[in-house]
Amino acid sequence: MKTTPTLLLALVLLLSIAGCETKTKNIDICKCLTEPGNSDYITTNRDACRDAISKEIGVENWEKVNMSQNKEVSDKFDALAKRCQ
Q1: C-alpha separations of 22 from 11, 12, 75 in Å
Q2: Owning domain of residue 59
Q3: Which of 16, 35, 59, 77 could bridge 39 with an S-S bond, Cβ 3.0-4.6 Å?
């Protein structure tokens, strides 16, 4: 079988996408917000939870945001937490 540059590029892109998919977990943001910090779920998914919550409210790392000084982000976080009740 002859491998063309286009086919090779498509294969590399496909493998890259597949690699990203295996690194991305299905994270339950509500579980991230409601589980105790020492639960198995949080222990296993701490970084993924941080990233998912941050993405949901539109910041790089929600843990580093001073909510008392950023009302917009604080409101988004509160709305997210309310959805999870």
Answers
A1: 17, 15, 32
A2: 26-83
A3: 35
